[in-house]
Design brief:
It is built from five helices and 17 strands. The two termini are about 30 Å apart. By secondary structure, the chain is α/β, with parallel strands linked by helices. The strands form three sheets. It has a nine-stranded mixed beta sheet with strand order 3-4-5-2-1-6-7-8-9, sandwiched between helices. The protein has a four-stranded antiparallel beta sheet with strand order 10-17-15-12, with no helix packed on it. The protein folds into two domains: about 180 residues, Rossmann fold (3-Layer(aba) Sandwich); about 70 residues, OB fold (Dihydrolipoamide Acetyltransferase, E2P).
Length: about 270
């Protein structure tokens, strides 16, 4: 494995964070990029809070907002933490001669305008990307085979996540004030927080899998919490599916940059 490569991961949600962490642990120089403030609920399973708080930890790895160049250079060169860039995608590209771009599409964030010309290798996470159009490769994030590498457009597939949890939405627009934390057990009808004077109630009993930040500005109908049916549901760290995705990205990068062609049993028929 050649770890002298630099990789920009566009995204700060669960999947992008898992990928960035894996590549950082693998020894690559990794940066994160997110243009707009994230409205992510499963914050303990991502680096999302770094956008607001300046830093966040995910399974022992720190992401740190790098608004000044010295902080960006420190993180990228020492590998002590993953620097987080904000602002325009074009500016993030110009900050460093990136060898690899890995992009995810997340909540309110427009999909990065990636092209195969942005780096030696560009990888899209999930069905929003098309090989040969906005990236070289796509890594499957949903369906029965997360982590699979696609060189051609594949039919979109989705994991059945909706059955695992109940989504809670803002009853009105305003500032959301959370009254419970991620991981807390709640009963149906219990108060999760308030938007202005309007209470936000738990629709079911279960465990808080994700919740918007305290004092988060939300619009009516925006998701503000997730309640998992099972109290044993994972609410922090990296999910098994995202471990597979991050492993697939790491494998694809190693194979492509080392010049190996993936083996396919289809060639035998």
């Amino acid at each position: 494995m050649s770890t002298d490569k630099s990789i920009l991961v566009c995204g700060i949600g669960e999947t992008a964070s898992a990928v960035a962490r894996r590549l950082h642990v693998d020894g690559y120089a990794v940066g994160l990029y997110r243009a707009t403030a994230p409205l992510l609920l499963r914050r303990r399973m991502s680096f999302a809070d770094a956008w607001h708080d300046g830093y966040a930890l995910l399974e022992g790895v720190e992401a740190r907002r790098a608004d000044v160049n010295a902080e960006f250079q420190l993180g990228l060169r020492t590998r002590a933490f993953i620097p987080l860039l904000r602002g325009r995608y074009a500016d993030a590209l110009e900050r460093w001669p990136w060898d690899v771009i890995v992009a995810a599409q997340e909540d309110r964030e427009p999909a990065p305008l990636t092209t195969p010309d942005d780096a030696e290798l560009t990888i899209g996470l999930g069905p929003s990307f098309c090989p040969g159009v906005d990236c070289h490769l796509v890594i499957e994030t949903d369906g029965p085979d997360p982590g699979a590498v696609h060189r051609k457009a594949a039919a979109p597939q989705r994991r059945a996540r909706e059955a695992e949890c109940a989504h809670v939405f803002a009853p009105v627009s305003g500032l959301f004030r959370a009254e419970v934390s991620i991981g807390a057990s709640v009963e149906a009808g219990g108060t999760l927080g308030y938007v202005g004077d309007a209470p936000v109630l738990a629709p079911i009993s279960g465990r808080v899998g994700g919740i918007a930040r305290r004092e988060q500005a939300v619009v009516e109908g925006a998701p503000v919490a997730e309640i998992a049916h099972a109290r044993s549901t994972q609410v922090s760290g990296i999910s098994f599916a995202n471990q597979l995705v991050s492993r697939g990205v790491s494998f694809a990068i190693e194979m492509e940059l080392e010049g190996f062609e993936p083996f396919s049993f289809q060639d035998w028929f």
